[in-house]
């Protein structure tokens, strides 16, 4: 017969056997799973059973054993609080669930960071009493790292998208990887455009001396892991730097930096061009796992994206800078051309050239020209008056061996040097460090030179030299035009002076005054003319007219009219015959060519007891105006046609007498047809009023002055389009001097 205590022991034994059987089933179930399973028994948490995944997670090796307390098998758990959690579950019987719990597995150099989702639940016997703790979990380290990796990737891509500086992106990438894998030191090197050298990109955890030493290393076989990877265009793995021949030239440097292994992956563009290298260093010799290489490939691709984006942005900025520079250059040259093309003489043009160059192209500028076989400095520009005076006073040497200006004048070629000019000069006082000397050419011959001088902080590049040469070319053209303009204007003035009387003659009983104002700058010879000369019998001839056209042809026609009139005036008593002789001469000259026409007023005058006797002819010209002693003004009506048109003009002479104080005004239509801005012409009426407004007793010179001032006030500074000429004859006692 079985006693009650025996029956109770039997029941407990059966419950224990049943519980152990359940754990054996769980062990079998988890035996081939990646999930972790461990069965602990007793308050000491003795490891009774566990699946291979559990032993692999806790480090394997000497830890693959049962029958020992967990705290003895994994002593690192106590300090992390996991043994306390087991005690709590064992005492209370209540389940504990952990999510993404961080566990440092192992000790010393073998320690690793891991993350787990786990459940601690009580093991009970058949009577419901807690007899141990069952551990079920899954290691989430890779998943967590994947999430962190994805987050870091997103952050880097966002940086790239918002065009963060490349150094910032690469530095952030290195730090992110080092946080994901604390045992790794990351470095990124950037390839030069030619792919022959690697430059420091980012390596926040490497010592500065190491980064400085490898900055600029050449790519090639045997140039460490990175130089070789760049050369081979594929990953290079060096598991032990101390023994690998690729590190022969860098082994001591790596030792100083405490580096023992290096895996380098080339960073390649989409077209295969080398962008740089991505390196992962270790402090101890190590062979990479596939996950390490995958991590390198992922971040090498990210780095490639960042570098390509940076290159594209740099190319855009460079293109924008080139475009802006081109616009600035064009604006500068346009402004310079406008300044040089103004109404300047040659000297002013060259002075403007020097002023345009300094300080835009160089701190100091000077211009020298050849005059009468000698070189003379005509312009200088500098930041201070003292420096300008020093530069202006300097004269080029006489020997081409000692002077850049003479060499450039002889060769016609630009000379550039990064030193002070040869020969004596104020180079030290001005702080000159280099120069550019550019010839000023006229039809291939150098007539001058532009010298630009650099000082500290300034240097000449190809772009600046090309801009200076273009400016010099434009200035040389402007100077040549100014010189030609001056020569033509001087010729025109001389010729015009030769066509006009230098002085009006003294006529007894008469006063004479003339007014002549050429249109514009007087560059072209005008067609207006006048003359007064003696006929040889005590009378005088006067003529005022206008030749159609301008320039040399008008000048020769003017000379023909005046000389013909002078030649025949003493032979013909009738003014009509003199004018007909002029018409005949005009028509006979170049009879096969239309030379335009001429208008004029010609007449004879002679002193009489009661004034001046006037006998005149008008040939298509403006009507003369007569002002009597009472200031009344009337037109002198005399009919007559144009001269030189091949049709004999019908001419009628008119006789009149100028009493004392009376004046006769002859003028060209340049006076009456001038106009100011948006106004009517000056006109005959206004001219008559101006003539009448001259004070009583005015001399011929006073009358001319009054009319000239009224015309100037009317046009108010506007350039006239036609020449203006006037001749005033006033009867009265002759002035002691002439006007």
From TrEMBL:
<dbReference type="InterPro" id="IPR013656">
    <property type="entry name" value="PAS_4"/>
</dbReference>
<keyword id="KW-0378">Hydrolase</keyword>
<dbReference type="InterPro" id="IPR052016">
    <property type="entry name" value="Bact_Sigma-Reg"/>
</dbReference>
<dbReference type="InterPro" id="IPR035965">
    <property type="entry name" value="PAS-like_dom_sf"/>
</dbReference>
<dbReference type="InterPro" id="IPR001932">
    <property type="entry name" value="PPM-type_phosphatase-like_dom"/>
</dbReference>
<dbReference type="InterPro" id="IPR029016">
    <property type="entry name" value="GAF-like_dom_sf"/>
</dbReference>
<dbReference type="Pfam" id="PF07228">
    <property type="entry name" value="SpoIIE"/>
</dbReference>
<protein>
    <submittedName>
        <fullName>GAF domain-containing protein</fullName>
    </submittedName>
</protein>
<dbReference type="Pfam" id="PF01590">
    <property type="entry name" value="GAF"/>
</dbReference>
<dbReference type="InterPro" id="IPR036457">
    <property type="entry name" value="PPM-type-like_dom_sf"/>
</dbReference>
<dbReference type="InterPro" id="IPR003018">
    <property type="entry name" value="GAF"/>
</dbReference>
<feature type="domain" description="GAF">
    <location>
        <begin position="161"/>
        <end position="317"/>
    </location>
</feature>
<dbReference type="GO" id="GO:0016791">
    <property type="term" value="F:phosphatase activity"/>
</dbReference>
<dbReference type="Pfam" id="PF08448">
    <property type="entry name" value="PAS_4"/>
</dbReference>
<dbReference type="Pfam" id="PF13185">
    <property type="entry name" value="GAF_2"/>
</dbReference>
<feature type="domain" description="GAF">
    <location>
        <begin position="352"/>
        <end position="489"/>
    </location>
</feature>
<feature type="domain" description="PPM-type phosphatase">
    <location>
        <begin position="510"/>
        <end position="731"/>
    </location>
</feature>
């Amino acid at each position: 017969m079985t006693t009650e205590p025996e029956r109770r022991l039997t029941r407990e034994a059966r419950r224990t056997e049943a519980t152990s059987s359940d754990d054996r089933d769980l062990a079998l179930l988890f035996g081939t799973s990646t999930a972790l399973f461990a069965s602990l028994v007793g308050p000491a948490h003795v490891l009774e059973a566990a699946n291979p995944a559990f032993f692999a997670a806790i480090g394997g090796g000497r830890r693959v054993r049962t029958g020992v307390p967990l705290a003895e098998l994994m002593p690192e758990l106590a300090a992390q609080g996991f043994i306390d959690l087991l005690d709590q579950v064992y005492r209370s019987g209540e389940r504990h669930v952990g999510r993404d719990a961080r566990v440092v597995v192992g000790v010393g150099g073998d320690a690793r960071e891991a993350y787990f989702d786990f459940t601690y639940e009580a093991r009970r016997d058949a009577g419901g009493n807690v007899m141990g703790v069952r551990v079920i979990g899954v290691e989430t380290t890779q998943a967590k790292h994947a999430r962190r990796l994805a987050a870091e990737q997103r952050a880097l891509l966002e940086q790239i998208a918002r065009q963060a500086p490349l150094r910032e992106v690469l530095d952030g990438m290195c730090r992110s990887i080092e946080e994901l894998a604390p045992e790794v030191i990351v470095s990124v090197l950037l390839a030069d455009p030619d792919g022959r050298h690697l430059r420091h990109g980012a390596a926040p955890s490497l010592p500065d001396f190491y980064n400085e030493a490898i900055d600029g290393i050449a790519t090639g076989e045997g140039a460490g892991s990175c130089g070789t990877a760049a050369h081979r265009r594929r990953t290079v793995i060096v598991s032990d730097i101390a023994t690998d021949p690729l590190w022969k030239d860098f082994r001591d440097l790596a030792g100083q930096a405490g580096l023992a292994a290096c895996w380098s992956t080339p960073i390649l563009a989409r077209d295969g061009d080398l962008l740089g290298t991505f390196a992962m260093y270790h402090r101890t010799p190590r062979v990479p796992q596939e996950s390490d290489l995958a991590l390198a490939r992922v971040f090498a691709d990210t780095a490639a994206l960042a570098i390509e984006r940076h290159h594209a942005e740099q190319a855009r900025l460079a293109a924008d800078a080139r475009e802006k520079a081109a616009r600035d250059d064009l604006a500068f040259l346009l402004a310079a051309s406008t300044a040089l093309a103004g109404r300047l003489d040659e000297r002013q043009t060259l002075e403007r050239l020097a002023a345009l160059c300094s300080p835009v192209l160089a701190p100091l500028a000077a211009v020298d020209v050849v005059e009468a076989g000698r070189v003379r400095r005509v312009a200088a520009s500098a930041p201070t008056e003292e420096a300008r005076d020093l530069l202006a006073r300097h004269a080029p040497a006489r020997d081409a061996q000692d002077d850049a200006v003479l060499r450039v004048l002889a060769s016609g070629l630009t000379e550039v040097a990064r030193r002070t000019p040869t020969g004596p000069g104020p180079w030290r006082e001005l702080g000159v460090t280099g120069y550019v000397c550019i010839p000023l050419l006229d039809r291939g011959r150098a007539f001058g030179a532009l010298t630009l001088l650099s000082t500290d902080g300034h240097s000449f590049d190809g772009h600046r030299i090309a801009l200076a040469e273009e400016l010099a070319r434009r200035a040389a053209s402007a100077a040549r035009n100014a010189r030609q303009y001056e020569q033509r204007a001087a010729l025109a003035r001389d010729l015009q002076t030769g066509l006009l009387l230098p002085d009006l003659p003294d006529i007894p009983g008469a006063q004479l005054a003339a007014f002549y104002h050429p249109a514009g700058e007087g560059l072209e010879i005008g067609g207006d003319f006048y003359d007064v000369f003696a006929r040889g019998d005590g009378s005088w001839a006067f003529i005022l007219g206008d030749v159609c056209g301008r320039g040399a042809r008008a000048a020769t026609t003017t000379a023909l009219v005046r000389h013909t009139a002078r030649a025949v005036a003493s032979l013909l008593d009738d003014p009509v015959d003199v004018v007909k002789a002029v018409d005949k001469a005009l028509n006979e000259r170049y009879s096969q060519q239309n030379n335009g026409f001429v208008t004029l007023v010609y007449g004879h005058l002679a002193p009489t007891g009661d004034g001046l006797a006037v006998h005149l002819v008008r040939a298509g010209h403006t009507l003369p105006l007569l002002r009597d002693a009472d200031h009344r003004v009337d037109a002198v009506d005399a009919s007559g046609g144009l001269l030189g048109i091949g049709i004999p003009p019908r001419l009628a002479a008119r006789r009149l007498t100028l009493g004392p104080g009376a004046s006769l005004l002859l003028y060209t239509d340049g006076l009456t047809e001038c106009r100011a801005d948006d106004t009517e012409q000056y006109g005959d009426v206004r001219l008559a009023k101006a003539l009448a407004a001259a004070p009583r007793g005015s001399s011929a010179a006073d009358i001319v002055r009054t009319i000239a001032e009224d015309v100037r006030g009317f046009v108010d500074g506007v350039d006239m389009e036609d020449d203006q000429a006037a001749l005033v004859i006033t009867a009265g006692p002759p002035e002691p001097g002439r006007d």
